[in-house]
Automatic annotation (TrEMBL):
InterPro entries: Euk_RPA1_DBD_C, NA-bd_OB-fold, Rep_factor-A_C. This is Replication factor A C-terminal domain-containing protein. It comes from the Eukaryota. It comes from Quercus suber. Transmembrane segments: none annotated. CDD domains: RPA1_DBD_C. The lineage of its organism: Eukaryota, Viridiplantae, Streptophyta, Embryophyta, Tracheophyta. Belongs to the replication factor A protein 1 family. Keywords: DNA-binding, Metal-binding, Zinc, Zinc-finger. GO terms for molecular function: DNA binding; zinc ion binding. Residues 78-214 form the Replication factor A C-terminal domain. The keyword Metal-binding applies.
Amino acid sequence: MPHFLLLFWKTDTNSEKFQIIQIQVNMEYTTLKQISRDKDNSKVKVRVLRMWDAINIANNHDLINLDMVLVDTEDLLVTCNAKIININNKYGWYYVACLICKTKVKQVRGVLWCERCKNEPKFAVPRIQVQAQDETSSTTFILFDKGAEKIIAKTAKELAEKQEEILKLDENILPKEIQKIIGNEYLFQLHLDEYNLKYGKENYMVSKILEMEILEIEEHQVIEAYLLQVACYMIQALVYTEITIRV
């Protein structure tokens, strides 16, 4: 996810106008999509992630300059090294989710119903909730069936069908294949969407489970983030703001 650092400076203390004196791109990140340096009038919508200001105490606390860290309004991807410490099986070890809003769907009169979208989703996918932890904190990761298959070798749907009779007796019984991942450490690529950034939802989607060997590749190819840092994104995003800048 591209990050921009914008520096605003008040050239005239009697004026309310600010001038952008520097646009610094963190080159460790890929550039914004569809934005080229050759385009003089390109615009991009960004989110204010962090902001600092400097004031003139001697002159009625007038604002002197303003620094911002901006991110593309597309969803944020971070990479986190964490250990799976438990499987959330309060409502069963897996659930079927709406493809649009990613929440659990219910069977209503024989059809699937999504309460958040208020409609009948045409497609739904099995998902697994795991409790993950690193040295700073713990939180909930949500695995799609494809992501889970990479570390379990079978999809949730396949495991459910295999143990159908057992699950009829107790849906909270964990298959042996699921139990084996508890205590294991993986490199997760987390997908932070609007529900995380704007509304502070702390269930994070796992977009990909990476091989541990990825740690050996060049530093600029991995964006590392601890769970505690992810929590900081949530706090900063409470003042969720979008602006448009000219590149």
